[in-house]
Design goal:
- The chain is mainly alpha-helical.
- It is built from 5 helices and no strands.
- Helix 2 runs antiparallel to helix 3.
């Protein structure tokens, strides 16, 4: 799958395609373990396609895992400053 083709897809379509690739990757891994997979390169191709889609999703939504994690936690440096400001008010 080419990146230029993926760029044209919407976020919903990319999310759906990522789910399909995850299922397909799971099935390929099972077939590889069972010894019924003809071409092991299919697993690698599937992984790369999934990585491309996940990268595009991150770019289009504008949020990475690190950004979401940082948004959840208040900064440790801000906490002592807040405590000091509260003490000064009392």
């Amino acid at each position: 799958m080419k990146a230029s083709e993926l760029n044209e897809l919407s976020v919903d379509e990319l999310t759906r395609k990522a789910g399909e690739l995850r299922e397909n990757l799971f099935n390929l891994k099972i077939r590889r373990r069972a010894g019924t997979l003809e071409s092991t390169s299919d697993v690698t191709k599937n992984k790369r396609d999934l990585a491309r889609i996940l990268t595009l999703l991150t770019q289009k939504t504008g949020s990475s895992k690190a950004q979401r994690k940082a948004a959840k936690k208040p900064h440790a440096a801000a906490q002592p400053a807040q405590a000091l400001a509260e003490k000064e008010q009392t």
